[in-house]
Specification:
Layout: H1 5-23, H2 25-29, H3 41-69, H4 75-101, H5 107-177, H6 183-199, E1 205-206, H7 207-222, E2 231-236, E3 243-244, H8 250-259, E4 269-275, E5 281-288, H9 300-312, E6 317-324, E7 327-334, H10 339-342
Parallel strand pairs: 2-4
Antiparallel strand pairs: 1-3, 4-5, 5-7, 6-7
Length: 344
């Protein structure tokens, strides 16, 4: 926490004004309020400045000793320094008051007249420090939450690339092994998708970009087969006006190709993406699957997307996954993405 003299001085001036206006409230209540002072104007200004300076010393010392020692847990120094500084400043204020008034003042009478106000100034310094310290700790906690969230998102997104690469290298290996004519187009398609994944570091992209990426991915997967498998991909809406974090939808499509019961005779994969008037994204992905296609290395994609959704769309998304009757159905609703909200 930084020492902000300007903020402390401004807060003190406000408090000082409130304290001294409070002196006149009883007289104001009885209709006896008066600011008449028989002394010379220059003397009154000097007395006011001296009084403000002494009062600020009480506030400053209380604040400064806490600033130096409280965060470091040097409580003994605080307990020692605060009373000593208070006595020292009070004694100095007594000597200065005698000099300013030009007369001998009784210490007991000065004590009764000043101790309450000096105590207020000291308490204000202590209270102001704890308010500032509380704000500082709260800000630190918020920044820590943001850093943890950003780190988690970066880690989750970084998991997508090797997961994606692992699956497609297996596919390309199979094509090359069988000396398929689709080997070179597959390598070219993979290169194009990796370029998008590696160099597009934007926080958000248009839904139209994400759909274009999905179409390229499906085209790459189709190269594995001698003839295209049956897929229905339908999208509808003004996608250019809808934004979302990149690589959020691909795990569902990838999971379908990895574990689905791929068919060339009937539609085995049905993908629908819509947007509504509130710019919500509605996606359904239904595919046939066979238990024998499930392997022990899978599962990263769906778990990954669940965690990302929890971070990116807190309380603003719905995801249901129903594996029923050899059909795997995913229904996803995404509210409007608010990057500012997740960093608060």
């Amino acid at each position: 926490m930084r020492f902000r003299m300007g903020i402390l001085a401004f807060a003190f001036l406000v408090f000082y004004a409130m304290i001294h206006l409070g002196q006149y409230l009883p007289d104001l209540y009885y209709g006896k309020f008066s600011l008449v002072d028989e002394r010379d104007f220059a003397l009154r200004v000097r007395s006011l400045l001296i009084d403000m300076g002494i009062a600020f010393c009480f506030t400053f010392c209380a604040y400064y000793f806490l600033f130096l020692n409280y965060a470091a847990r040097k409580y003994f120094l605080i307990l020692l320094a605060l009373p000593l500084s208070f006595v020292l400043i009070f004694w100095v204020s007594y000597l200065v008051a005698q000099w300013d008034s030009g007369m001998q003042l009784r210490l007991s009478r000065f004590f009764r007249g000043q101790i309450l106000y000096d105590g207020f100034y000291t308490i204000f310094g202590l209270a102001f420090y704890f308010v500032r310290y509380g704000q500082y700790k709260e800000l630190q906690e918020k920044q820590l939450v943001i850093l943890n969230r950003e780190s988690s998102l970066a880690l989750l997104r970084s998991q997508i690339n090797p997961h994606f690469l692992f699956n497609n290298l297996n596919n390309i290996y199979s094509l090359v092994y069988h000396q398929s004519d689709q080997s070179l187009p597959a390598i070219s398609g993979l290169s194009e998708l990796l370029r998008y994944m590696l160099y597009d570091n934007k926080e958000v992209i248009g839904l139209d970009e994400e759909i274009n990426y999905l179409e390229k991915y499906i085209a790459l997967e189709q190269l594995r087969f001698e003839r295209p498998c049956k897929i229905n991909f339908h999208s509808e809406g003004d996608f250019s006006q809808v934004q979302l974090p990149p690589l959020l939808l691909i795990p569902f499509i990838e999971n379908a190709f990895k574990h689905g019961a791929i068919s060339f005779e009937k539609t085995w994969l049905d993908i629908n993406i819509y947007t509504d008037a509130n710019r919500q994204v509605l996606m359904s992905c239904t595919n046939d699957f066979a238990l024998k296609n499930k392997d022990s290395t899978g599962g990263i994609g769906i778990d990954n997307v669940r965690k990302r959704l929890a971070l990116l769309y807190p309380d603003n998304h719905d995801l249901t996954i129903d594996p029923l009757n050899h059909t795997f159905k995913v229904a996803l609703r995404l509210g409007r993405y608010d990057h500012q909200k997740i960093t608060k």
